[in-house]
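Q: What residues go here?
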C-alpha cells in the first residue's frame, strides 16, 4: 500500500466544495482543511505508484477550484504508540 500526502492550493471561495469533491475520489481516504500556506491536505492510499499518478494528476488536479498540488510519498508510518516508545525516558 502506498500512502501519499497531497498539499492542495484551492480558490479560497471554493475550499469547501473542492474538499468535498476531492474526498469523493476513489483512493482519497481523508481531506483536511488546514491553516498556513496550503488550503487542503488529502491522504491518498493506493496499491501502486501509477495509481498515485492517476488519483493526483488524473483526478484531483482536474477538480474545479484546484490551483495546484504538491505530492509527498510516505516511506514509513509511525503510530502515536510507536512514537511514545521511541521517546520514552524509561518512566
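A:
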Amino acid at each position: 500500500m502506498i500512502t501519499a500526502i497531497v498539499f492542495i492550493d484551492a480558490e479560497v471561495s471554493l475550499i469547501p466544495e473542492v474538499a468535498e469533491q476531492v474526498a469523493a475520489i476513489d483512493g482519497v481516504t481523508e481531506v483536511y482543511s488546514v491553516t498556513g500556506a496550503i488550503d487542503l491536505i488529502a491522504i491518498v492510499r493506493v496499491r501502486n505508484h501509477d495509481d498515485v499518478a492517476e488519483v493526483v494528476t488524473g483526478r484531483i488536479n482536474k477538480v474545479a477550484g484546484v490551483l495546484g498540488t504538491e505530492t509527498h510519498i510516505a516511506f514509513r508510518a509511525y503510530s502515536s504508540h510507536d512514537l511514545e516508545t521511541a521517546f520514552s525516558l524509561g518512566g
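A: Context that may help when evaluating the design: Residues 82 and 88 are 10 Å apart (CA to CA). The first helix runs from residue 15 to 23.
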